[in-house]
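Following up on my earlier thread - several people asked me to post the actual chain instead of describing it. Fair enough. Here it is, all 356 residues.
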Amino acid sequence: MPIATNTDFTREEVRLALRNPGMPLEALRRDVTPIGMHYVLVHFDIPDVDATTFELVVDGCVRTRLSLSLDQLRARPAVTTPVMMECAGGGRAHLTPRPVSAPWHDEAIGCAEWTGTPLRGVLEEAGLLDDAVELLFTGADRGLDQGVEQDYQRSLTVDEAMTDGVLLAYAMNGEPLPPPHGFPLRLLVPDWYGMASVKWLRSITAIAEPFEGVQQTQLYRYRRSEDEPGTPVTRKKPRALMAPPGIPEFLSRTRHVPAGRTLVEGRAWSGAGAIERVEFSADGGATWGDARLGEPNGRHGWRAWSFEWDATPGDHELSARATDAAGDVQPLDSEDAWNLGGYGVNAVQRVVVRVS
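Reply from S.P.:
Thanks for posting it. Predicted structure:
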């Protein structure tokens, strides 16, 4: 992935930003993100898939090859669950030097209610053979990346694919999947970053060797140089974001808040365990106070938090940081999380507020 040599965003990055909208952070006040506010990332093109002729093929190292229509998938046991989804490249635009790709700041998120059938049931019906080590998921979108023409493909180990919560999803907030979100069917891997949740899913292949495609071995890996293999990007790191308080200036987005008691609120999440603590700072991270936590929005959703801030006149830098059940805490500085692809950047959010 190329690295920006200056702070200006390239034409290519601007084009990607226009194609892939993020969630306005004021939507953090909602338990469930409306479809039109949920972030979107499309790697190649949005394919035109006919739901009436659609079939999901399950093949490879299985006892029984399956070919399932959308109606057959809908007739299977169904689960509806809130899932906090986050792009692995969220926060990339904060890095210096900046990897050149989708220039996400903090908005590559969303928490919708997804409906689908558990993947485990389909795999059990197909019957995985003993030599199956991974499941390869292939989408209907095709393009070029890293100089290689490819279908978008990702894999999971057998154990990962059989985990409770992994769904073959066909509805979002009670509606059929919109085309940018994978109509008519997508994979949903709740605790992982969004790249694992393959959209426009057309086949699942049980394979006897680890998948070595571009999206698995060249991209979505934590590494600090081109000559190191790195480690794979998997579960979401802990993160807390605040809904912007007050009102904004149009261009700078600087927030304006009247002096006095101000309720600051937001959401926090992690793919490695429940959120157990959120802290708030109004002085750029010099001092911290514990925020009040709301009830979790399901096992895979986000958790609301709030803090009563006594806003005094002047300029302030507000921040929030989360701690999950695994003991992981957000870093203060995005440079601590720097990597070649700009993945998993979960440094604390910094919001400039002017109090008058």
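The CA atoms of residues 246 and 257 lie 5 Å apart. That should answer part of your original question.
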